[in-house]
Amino acid sequence: MADEPLILGIETSCDETGVGIVRGHTLLADALASSVEEHARFGGVVPEVASRAHLEAIVPTMDRALKEAGVTIADIDAIAVTSGPGLAGALLVGVAAAKGYALAAEKPVYGVNHLAAHVAVDTLEHGPLPEPAVALLVSGGHSSLLLVDDLARGVTPLGATIDDAAGEAFDKVARLLGLPFPGGPPIDREARAGDAGAIGFPRGLTAAKDLAAHRYDFSFSGLKTAVARWVEARQRAGEPVPVADVAASFQEAVCDVLTAKALDACRAHGIETLVIGGGVAANSRLRAMAEQRAEKHGIRVRVPRPRLCTDNGAMVAALGSHLVASGVAPSRLDLPADSAMPLTVVSV
Amino acid sequence: MLVLLVDSSTPAVTAALVEVSADSVALRAHRCTVDARAHGELLAPEVDAVLADADARPADLAAIVAGLGPGPFTGLRVGLVTAATMGQVLGVPTYGVCSLDGIGYPAAAGEPVLAASDARRKEIYWAVYDGAGQRIAGPEVDAPDAAAARARDLAVTVAVGDGAHRYADVLGLPVRAEPRYPDPVALARLAGERIRAGAPGERLTPLYLRRPDAVASIGRKPVLPPAVTP
Ligand SMILES: [Zn+2]
């Protein structure tokens, strides 16, 4: 194992500054600095605040990662960095940092796709990924269903949200229930005490007429509005809002659609492995429901532990490691940060 | 001592290598590309190129100097993060210099001068330098007419820099052609004392001068139509 390449990964696409170090599929370090608290009072991530925080955090976070792994930058074989998609100004800091490290240490640099990295991180927990696989990536910034034919070279998008990301819906519903930002963990917590069948919230893009054009797409905007209407109607009537029941019923609607479509994609493509990643993959109901439903069809669900589901540097290092092992050529020093990087591009 | 300079505070993306000796600063290699939208793409290849031009390796660097701005947010950070990360790997000190000094200091010729760069949103980043090149006001960010009024109070007779070119008519001052963008040799001279003394490196904090655009959430808009009051 010691002769496997030592890969460093840098992640700055949103509000987390992450530096991870892996050797092969072994995680050696996963250092993280988050600016989430600075965004909480705005109810969402403020791009300029995130970019400023990345600039301040990158050097100390790198120091911590190197210490944690017990290596120096001279030991590193290649540097991978999220070059998109994400917040343009935030990505720019990470990409420039990766180039600075690569230049000074005279190492190759790989600009990689953030979403492909969310898939690759599972290899640190469950070993090499069987290909093809289906991946469901759900977070505050993205909600995508992908067909992973070859994680080193290309991923086929099957569907995505046509409005809000799943995590965004969690944030917005949490806010209207008076729960803190980010909304995922508090809703998960509240929902445990609630009745998931109490309120029949809508399941977006699941009606027969929608499935023709949007079989693998998601929509959470109608759900969010339905929850808001329901809560407001209660408040207007002067009745208390049953927070736990609303949280559980909302969460049930989201997880129902996500798992139904993900498993439909697996069955339609004859695929036996479903990988779930992104911050929403940390949701306990999503994990349980996916496993329950997959079992019936002999499909294996792979979900990395919650710490690896949210944005971090280890996922970028994991993808970098896979690229190096697959013989993919590194990027050039003029590699751009691409806020709209398409899924079909794994590395640039 | 071989020193790397980077500045990405203006539309010009600059990397340079200078040789700093006891009594001089000599330019060894210089790359500059004017493109306000591609700082992230341009700077690293420029650094690579100046090292190649000077037949030097990163490990030959004794210090790194970066222009701290002021500059429009996004591009400015590219230079600073490049300097900070390279300094970290190489274990060499990093020093910051106000980027406007790289315009105003070399422009000094006995009379006070206004140095300005474009701040977008119809504003300029500006500072005033006395006849010897010492900054006596700024850096600040203002509408050009407000900056011009301040400059007149300081007996400024000439303006310099890209921002001065852009708003020459509003400033009402003759504009000197050069330097239009921060001059790397000037930035190196301004850090010269620290470089020669081997002063401890500094954390490179940008001169933002503006607060981030962000509005604290002030509650939620209702989705139901307003209740009808009887
Ligand atoms: Zn993500």
From TrEMBL, chain A:
Where located? Cytoplasm
Cofactor(s) needed: Fe(2+)
Q: Could you give the cofactor binding note from the entry?
A: Binds 1 Fe(2+) ion per subunit.
Annotated Gene Ontology cellular component terms: cytoplasm
The top EC class is: transferase
Q: Does the keyword Ribosomal protein apply?
A: no
Q: Which is an annotated Pfam family here?
A: TsaD
Q: What is its EC number?
A: 2.3.1.234
Residues binding substrate, per UniProt: 137-141, 171, 184, 188, 283
Query: What biological-process GO terms show up in the record?
Result: tRNA threonylcarbamoyladenosine modification
Q: What does this protein do?
A: Required for the formation of a threonylcarbamoyl group on adenosine at position 37 (t(6)A37) in tRNAs that read codons beginning with adenine. Is involved in the transfer of the threonylcarbamoyl moiety of threonylcarbamoyl-AMP (TC-AMP) to the N6 group of A37, together with TsaE and TsaB. TsaD likely plays a direct catalytic role in this reaction.
Q: What is this protein called?
A: tRNA N6-adenosine threonylcarbamoyltransferase
TrEMBL record, chain B:
- One Pfam family in the UniProt entry: TsaD
Instruction: Tell me if Transferase is a UniProt keyword of this record.
Output: yes
Keywords for the protein's UniProt record, in alphabetical order: Transferase
- Please name the GO terms that the record assigns under molecular function: transferase activity
Answer yes or no on keyword Protein transport: no
Q: Name one GO biological process term.
A: tRNA threonylcarbamoyladenosine modification
Q: Where is the Gcp-like domain?
A: 36-148
The identity of this protein, by name, is tRNA (Adenosine(37)-N6)-threonylcarbamoyltransferase complex dimerization subunit type 1 TsaB
